[in-house]
Amino acid sequence: MTPPDAPPAPAPAPVAAARLLAGRLCGGRDDIDTVFRKLELMTSVGATIGAVEQLATADTLADDGLFSWPVMRLRAPLWWRRAGEERLAKVFGYPGVVGLVQTRALTGLGLLLPGATRAQRGVLAATMCGTAHGLHTRMGGFGLDGSDHLTFVNYAVSAAEKAFGHDPRARETLVRFLAAQVCMAYFTSGAAKLISPVWRDGTAIPEIFRTSTFGDPLFFRAVRDRPWLAKSVAWATILGEMAFPLVLVAPRPVARGILAAGTGFHLGNARFMGLNRFVWSYCSTYPALAHVSRSLGPRARPGAPRTTAPYAAARRLLRTAATPRGAAAVTVGAGLALLAGAAARRADRVRDARLRRDAPGRLLTVAGRTVHALPRNPGADGPAVVFENGLAAPATQWGWVQRGLDPRTPSTAYDRPGIGWSDAADRPQGPDEAADVLAGTLRTLGIEPPYVLVGHSVGGLLIRTFARRHPELTGALVFVDATHPEQFVRSPRQREALPWIRQRMTTTGLQAAFGLLRYSGRPQQMSGLPGPLGEATARIVRRPRLWRTAREELAESQRTWGPDARLPLPATDTPVAVVTAGETVRSDPLHAELQRELALLSTVSRHDLVEEAGHESLVLDEAHAAHVVRAVEWARTRAAAGPARAVPAEPAPEGAQGDRT
User: Environment class of residue 596 by beta-carbon count within 10 Å: exposed (0-12), middle (13-18) or buried (19+)?
Assistant: First the structure.
């Protein structure tokens, strides 16, 4: 035991450093002048160090260097290039860009020197903003990180503050703006990690620290051999970043603890990841956070028991609500909330009705729900081609394939419940319900069997389900880079990709809900479909309901569709054609073996490998879709021949892996 008169044990060095730095930054009751002076000093230390580092590696900015201007200028904004290539080359070409970095280093040193007037500091801060913007544009976004962006914000706020020297209200607003920016930066960083599966399970930590750029051998070995430690570090980072905005409203000791923890976090990143610039850019804002916290956080009145602001505000609200006027206000507020909810639901119905009017196919009623289908020649003779879509793909994805078929061929594509223009189901559809919906759709359209079932991606599971339940209606099967029932069990690459697929469904759904899914992602992929299909499809995939259903279908494919599809088919001579995307095989070599197993489902089969095609482009690209068309026509010919399959041999098409007819 420690003797009573012994001095207290010293704190560990990182903890002591964090406490010291946090105390220096946030101690006392800084006025606004002190807040901005601390902001300028710390930010300038980091910016000057960064400029000196750039000067030490200036050869990377040369015309034959990693960040040469002849290459980087291609990423410059168009309005910059309109200013004249020659004038831009003088500033951003080599060695002119070195002068820009030198200006930044000297300006940063000027802000560190004592004795500068407010006006001079304002000019220097504005110069740092200008050089930062120039270098950001010059680098085309490469080599930048969150510290660079926050450094720009710090200098912009500092320069703006000098223009309002005699307006305390404006200066206070700028401090609060800076505090809000920092809190938002922390929170969004934590939220981005929260939706990442590799951060949630902790595997991101050893992957980061094994790299030469951000790695540390000692820390890597520690988290590699201790998964619990990696997961603990990951979740501590996520929760710490997302909880950081509480610094603005927490009691003063808690707020100081949060700032000390943030300082320790950045010092740890500087030690183990080499991210020293984050210490200067982020910790320089802590005086502003402490200043805002003193005005927003809980305060005690003289002679009153110490309490926290949230609880006091809650009590005041309850007392107000208990009065007749307060009750009336609550009633009005609740009514307005109900009206807003009703208006939002009505807007959704109006949007859905408008989308329905633009549906490119027919809207049928099957089992009391609306089902959208794209039939062609439904009453024609011969085996009919029936398309089953991939995940989050409407029926129009088959536009190029359906157009490539013989004009006399009966065919149809349809939307599963909740996908495309079809009504959503009350619950996720199991294999029995999925088969019933397809059978009901075909009966409503009047399309006669036998059916050549064509399934893309998870649609490959559903055509096996249909063929097993309705062997008398099934003439042939065509698998288009289809999901193997065991691929997520047997393929490590596919199993690792599954959480990322779930995350993409979630984030894309959120983008659709907020109207951000417009010019990128799925709409862009679908916009190349033939005729009006591209525009209609780009609109319908921005429907949030589609992405919720897609996530449900992904879960259902693991829970019921896959196990059901593992069961053997009733007949071993049902013609089977398999078309595989070369890009998928290159990303996961085991995928080729799984695709060959699909071809082995029948004694009458063929397997085509389309080298240049990707999983989506195999049906969305006109040239690649032609390979699918040939496989479908092959399957139709075998299905039309009946059980004997007595069809003359034909030359194998380009890229064919084999024909077992």
Answer: middle
